[in-house]
Amino acid sequence: MSDTSVLTRTEAAERHRQLDVRTVHLDLDLTLGREVFGSTTVIRFGCTTPGADTYVDVKPATLHRAVLNGRELDATTLRAGRLPLTGLAADNELTVEAHMAYSHTGEGMHRFTDPADGEDYVYTQSFLDDGPRVFASFDQPDLKARYTVTVTAPPQWTVVGNSTGRQVTPGRWEFATTPAISSYLVSVVAGPLHSVRAEHDGIPLGLHCRRSLAAHLDTDAAELLEITRQGFDHYHRVFRHRYPFDSYDQCFVPEFNAGAMENPGCVTLRDEYIFRSAVADTKREERALVVVHEMAHMWFGDLVTMKWWDDLWLNESFAEYMAYSVTAASTRFTGAWTGFAADRKPWGYDADQRPSTHPVAPGTVDDTAQALQNFDGISYAKGAAALRQLVAWLGEDAFLTGVNDYFDEHAFGNATLDDLLRALAAASGRDVHGWADRWLRTTGVDTLRLTDGRIEHTSPDGTPRPHQLTAAHYRRTAEGTLELAGRVPLDLTADATAAPVRPAAATELTLLNDTDLSYVKIRLDPGSWKTVRSSLGAVPEELARAVLWSAARDQVRDGELTPGEYLELVAAHLPGETSVHLVDAVLSFARDFVADCAVPPAARPAALATLAQVCRTLLRRTEGEPDRTGLRLVAARGVINTAADRTQATELRDWLAAGTVPGGPVLDPDLRWHLLLRLCVLGAAGEPEIAAELAADPSDTSEEGAARCRAALPDPAAKEAAWQTLFHGELSNYLATATARGLWQPEQAELLDRLTTRYFEELGPATARRGPALARVLATAAFPAFAATERTVRAAEACLADPDLTAATRRGLVDQLDTLRRAVRARALTGQ
Ligand SMILES: [Zn+2]
């Protein structure tokens, strides 16, 4: 990675002034074996200053030939991914012929061999600056071109691209010329794909996956197509521009780093979204959100593209906001906003309170490496929450009018945040720029604290944001439960720092932001908090309970609530909870942060026992209720995750032998691997069981399961083997993640002590060698989060002092260190 340079904002602006890229013809040859593929690019472009010099971005394995206007270029001048082009004419034609290397990290052209049947698949990921690993280009968002792609592939393969393609002779594919698109959106997916085709509203639709998943795609195709149709209908209702490309293919691809990528007409999605095992309905909702999110990008991101990466939020926040609002309004997942409150917003809140936080719309992003680090919970969750506030303030009609005007003005071109704000201001007559200064140009989370009927409104930078929200008052019923006594809208302008909230006399609980309209931390008055402790589960609205659980969560992270107090809330109110979103989110936090990190080691067995008891109660409560499958799945996983002693291990072994949790769910591959992992951690299973499981189902899921289990064995040789593959091997992105997740187990603290020190010594060199995608795995999934001690904090700080750490490693480490410090503080609160 270090042999390629990053593009700076200044360089991009200069090249934009100089060049006018018109057409690109890209020809790929995928028949050259497993190491490299052929790539020939012909770019036709104008130059406003004839005689000037520039460079084309290309990162080949071997550069064979480059010809500019009939003149052979010296291939040895290629440096750090840039080939100099000198003496440009007004009209130019550049041809670049190269062999490119396949990747195994999900960057560039990823190649994957399916262990289930030995078949090979390839797909591109050109985002953010990995396009030049596939083809030569002027790789920046504001040099759009019309692409014509041709591909030679093995004759039995199917090839999918950004536009309609056809096989003209066996193995030879030609694709229609696209409208003007950015280079980071060019996409090709190929292999012996299984395809389901349909049509909606004149748009050809395709769903594709690898052959070994065919039966599972067929099972889910109707649901996927229904969501796609509902998405198109909704967008065609609210946007004046029709869908701007000629077909819509959704390709489910292996070992994909992100959830999905919005390539025009050729969306790539991680193929875990083709479910091989039983999933809770919340997982189907998550998949629907991803489908609808990528569709929003066809307009916002693809039709109109940000000029430079500092407006990445324009893409992501918008798509994220639309995904939740369209999914809630137009699909069967009407409770999508609860998922936003329970699962998604915490991602934004956490990111926004770390030293690495940044404004939703950063003033400047200097280069592509920095841009990649901003692709986080702030761009997605906080940005979407901010847009939700904007819509609440402007009204949906004015918001959509502004957005449509913006599409009209910039279709097939590029735009900036200011262009959007101007369109919204014109449509609404409001001071949208002033709003943006407070919401998009600042960092941190405001806090609303209720004291004696008044709201104390604070902000990290001393200037509170304007908020549109509601407050709810609850009173006790004769049956002892709670009911909504009233809900009031609140318009908190920045200067109303002590707005009054007047509850009726019998109010037992006043909850600010009960409909979760705003992005803010809330703190309850002492009387209301007392009611929450005794009666959280009795609050009737699911969304309000989500807000309360979220408040409890960030009080633990802020050191205002002890881990023990949080676990008391869980023990009291989770067993009766009906929302799968809430049970899943609360259990995850209670296990991953509270029990594994924030509770002192001596108190951990009791914490696990509490969680196990909660999960067993949930299992008992949902016995014989088929519509509670999701809850049972989450509860069964919880029982497995919290098993800690010999008796519980024996019980798990009985489940494995019987092939089912008593009363269900049946142990499908996902649950079997989950269970086997826990047995391996506890030393109650080992290599023979792992090998048998792998032989029974030799899929990539099983390979990942086996890697996780082997790394988790309480044995020095197993740890060393995992370590060597992780830090010194060539594992793919997914196998590296699986190995990392198995490695650190709080039960094995003694065995892992030496590796904790070694982690900080070997992290830098390993991540420098393997690039940003693997750096994220090694700096986050492989971080020893359970070792929440001052010693680990100091080791992490010392590691960060190394000036040679890559940007991705540094960012991952800074974020993990923040969580680690919070865990150390929480342990101190408990007094051990
Ligand atoms: Zn997106």
What is this entry, summarized?
It contains 25 helices and 28 strands. With 832 residues, it is of the alpha+beta class. The strands form 7 sheets. Strands 1, 2, 4, 5, 7, 10, 12, 13 and 14 form a 9-stranded mixed beta sheet that branches.
Structure description:
The chain is of the alpha+beta class. Helix content is 45%, strand content 20%. Strands 1, 2, 4, 5, 7, 10, 12, 13 and 14 form a nine-stranded mixed beta sheet that branches. A five-stranded mixed beta sheet has the order 16-17-18-20-19, with helices on one face. Helix 5 packs parallel to helix 14 and helix 14 (580-598) packs antiparallel against helix 15 (604-621). It is globular, with a radius of gyration of 27 Å. The mean pLDDT is 95.
Provide a count of the helices.
25
SSE class: alpha+beta
Shape: globular
Q: Nearest-angstrom radius of gyration?
A: 27 Å
Q: What ligands does this structure carry?
A: zinc ion
Low-confidence stretches: none
Mean pLDDT: 95
Helicity level, as a percent range?
40-55%
Count the E strands: 28
Task: Summarize the biggest pleated sheet.
Answer: 9 strands, mixed
Strand composition percent: 15-25%
**Gap between N and C termini:** 44 Å
